[in-house]
Specification:
This protein is an alpha/beta fold. The protein contains 4 helices and 4 strands; from the N terminus they run E-H-E-H-E-H-E-H. Helices cover 43% and strands 18% of the residues.
């Protein structure tokens, strides 16, 4: 599938970091740690997509976001981007949103391994 950028909030990053010491991530995956997904700029995601990079936003479950609205904002942005991609005839599956807790690092690693190789 090509290169994948994963924006991880602190909570998701912690879980990913713990598990990725045991299970290696594909070379195509670049992890970008951010304090909260709500702070990921829409333009950064669009730039990545325009550069043929696939994007995953992985963050807290909506009810557990320490910044209250970060996960909700990220989910809304991804839904908007997916609709935009579909509208212009591109693959909407190039951008994904995952709700991941600190204890679900394995789930994230498994998803990234599958996403990077599909």
């Amino acid at each position: 599938m090509g290169k994948v950028i994963v924006f991880c909030c602190d909570a998701a990053y912690y879980g990913l970091n713990m598990v990725s010491k045991l299970i290696e991530l594909p070379e195509e995956v670049e992890v970008v740690r951010v304090p909260c997904l709500g702070g990921v700029e829409f333009e950064a995601v669009v730039r990545a997509l325009l550069d043929s990079v696939n994007v995953v936003l992985a963050g807290c479950h909506q009810n557990n976001c320490k910044n209250i609205d970060g996960s909700r904002l990220a989910k809304m942005r991804v839904e908007l981007l997916r609709r935009m991609l579909e509208f212009i005839g591109m693959d909407a599956d190039r951008v994904k949103h995952l709700e991941i807790s600190t204890y679900e690092g394995l789930k994230l690693v498994e998803f990234l391994n599958e996403f990077a190789t599909r």
